[in-house]
Write a structure and sequence with these properties.
The chain is an all-alpha fold. The protein contains six helices and no strands. The protein has one domain. The relative contact order is 0.14.
């Protein structure tokens, strides 16, 4: 964000919000970019063989008792909410074209004219 502000010749004292600057340059939010990379990785894991380390670690359960208080946010729960937001079902893992098309929508750089 610091670099975008520098390119736009805008300081924090100008009180222009980050969303406006990001929109001006056509940049996606960091959370969208992270969501995209998580979805790409998850598609890779789902297509992997059953004995690979990434597939085994996905179903790994940690033994022991959870601490008191609010349960921690688990990666699978968050990720399934992201899949629902993108309109992807985990059963579509083998249709790579559809998976890739749905997961790349977060980055506006993919929509630019590539000369």
């Amino acid at each position: 964000m610091k670099m975008l502000r520098w390119m736009a010749a805008v300081t924090r004292l100008d009180r222009i919000c980050s969303e406006d600057i990001r929109y001006r340059f056509g940049m996606a939010e960091i959370s969208d970019k992270l969501r995209k990379s998580h979805q790409r990785w998850y598609g890779h894991v789902l297509r992997a063989e059953e004995r690979t380390v990434c597939k085994v670690s996905l179903g790994l359960e940690v033994p022991g008792k959870r601490p008191k208080g609010r349960p921690g946010q688990r990666w699978p729960n968050t990720f399934h909410a992201d899949l629902k937001l993108a309109g992807i079902h985990p059963d579509q893992e083998h249709d790579r074209a559809k998976w890739r098309q749905r997961t790349t929508k977060a980055d506006p750089a993919t929509k630019r004219d590539k000369r």
